[in-house]
Design brief:
alpha+beta; Aminopeptidase; Alpha-Beta Plaits; nine-stranded mixed β-sheet; 35% helix; elongated; binds (2S)-amino(hydroxy)ethanoic acid; binds manganese (II) ion
Length: 408
């Protein structure tokens, strides 16, 4: 099987075809989870999967499993997956690449009439992005036992629509039960600058940063921008602005790949001549070491308390996501590294700054990821781009690593 190669044009064409669903003017995609465009993306994947002879099942949170039988039908499948949902102004490759690469692995095995020893499944996980609904990686989190199904179904978006309602509205509330997974592989663009900057084709992913997400509500008092003296104001936006600076200071002064982002802020009443009485913002902290991640949050809480006193406001920090740094299965990571080497691709070990469904799958099955470069390291942006030859290279590594695990 060492000579087997994927069909690079077919893979690229599938990615470009899928990118037309929810396509945005600057060449990105908007397929927010459980919306009409997400449904269309799901339907397209299922159509292609069935064309490839796969049996399709959907579970209670809308995760899709497209199954290719193996010689040992009772064996736990090797699953290859990622996600079809995107950020509001996302790119063509984030998530979609991993699902299309899984489909291309199957298509290649079909062309070569290869039967694997254990079954294969191509999976598309619900709501990886965590943009419309928190928590992030919701579908893979339910599948892996991190979140109860009812908890996930009850989550509401900013319009008060529950996951359950949205899932039923697009017809993806399925009944497939959780099943054993023999191993999990995910191909993904790096979403950062390292591979491109070092001229490396394949990232051999060791694991992913831990994350702690907070929803923050800052409450002061609306008051008139003119008569209200500066020293008596209870200005929620001033307090929020100081907290944003603290998030950045903590992240830039902490070790171990520390990251800190405030990605969203709402101000009330949001009127130019009213001192804002309320500000809502998000905090996304990440780190490669759990003790450092915990220390970052402790420092944030200390600084928030001081800012609240100085600005005469209240600051409520509600943690909405927490998962420790994850390490992938050494034996599977080694199979990715040796596949890249055998195929003659430049490769390097790398830690993922982004979380992926693989983070939660690694709790229930040996897991590994394959990274390929993206242009300028830019992702979660409509201009996200990758090269056809890199996309194909990652899929060839995926094919060989999957075959090494699934057997033939
Ligand atoms: O935020 C993340 O790491 C992922 O893109 N959901
Ligand atoms: Mn992704
Ligand atoms: Mn993403």
């Amino acid at each position: 099987m060492d000579g087997l190669r994927v069909n690079a044009d077919r893979l690229w064409d599938s990615l470009m075809e899928l990118a037309r669903i929810g396509g945005t003017p600057k060449g990105g995609v908007c397929r927010l989870t459980l919306t009409e465009t997400d449904r269309q993306g799901r339907d397209t994947f299922i159509h292609w999967a069935r064309d490839a002879g796969l049996a399709v099942r959907v579970d209670g949170i809308g995760n899709i499993f497209a199954r290719r039988e193996g010689a040992d039908a009772a064996a736990a499948p090797v699953v290859i997956g990622s996600h079809l949902d995107s950020q509001p102004s996302g790119g063509k490759f984030d998530g979609a690449y991993g699902v299309m690469a899984g489909l291309e692995v199957v298509r290649t095995l079909n062309d070569a009439r290869v039967t694997t020893r254990v079954p294969l499944e191509v999976a598309a996980w619900t709501n990886e992005e965590g943009s419309r609904y928190v928590p992030t990686m919701m579908g893979s989190g339910v599948f892996s036992g991190v979140y109860a199904l009812d908890y996930a179904l009850a989550q509401q978006d900013s319009d008060g629509i529950s996951v359950r309602t949205a899932l039923e509205a697009i017809g993806y509330a399925g009944d497939a039960k959780p099943h054993a997974v023999g191993a999990y592989f995910e191909a993904h663009i790096e979403q950062g600058p390292v591979l491109e900057a070092t001229g490396t084709t394949i990232g051999v992913v060791q694991g992913a940063l831990g994350q702690r997400w907070f929803d923050v509500v800052i409450t002061g008092q609306d008051s008139h921008a003119g008569p209200t003296p500066m020293e008596t104001r209870r200005d929620a936006l001033l307090a929020a602005s100081r907290l944003v600076l603290e998030v950045n200071r903590i992240a830039t002064t902490s070790p171990d790949y520390a990251r800190g982002t405030v990605g969203s802020m709402q101000v009330k009443p949001n009127s130019r001549n009213v001192v804002p009485g309320e500000a809502r913002m998000t905090v996304d902290f990440r780190n490669a070491k759990d003790p450092t991640l915990i220390a970052m949050v402790d420092e944030l809480k200390r600084r928030a308390a001081a800012i609240a006193t100085e600005c005469r406001v209240t600051i409520d920090l509600r943690e909405v996501v927490y998962f420790a740094p994850s390490e992938f299965a050494p034996e599977l990571v080694a199979s990715v590294r040796s596949a890249a080497g055998a195929l003659g691709y430049s490769h390097r070990d790398i830690v993922s700054g982004a979380a992926h469904d693989a983070v939660y799958l690694s709790r229930v099955a040996p897991t590994a990821m394959v990274f390929v470069p993206c242009k300028g390291g830019i992702s979660h942006n409509e201009i996200e781009s990758a090269k056809p030859e890199d996309v194909a290279a990652g899929c060839n590594v995926l094919l060989q690593a999957v075959l090494a695990r699934a057997g033939t």
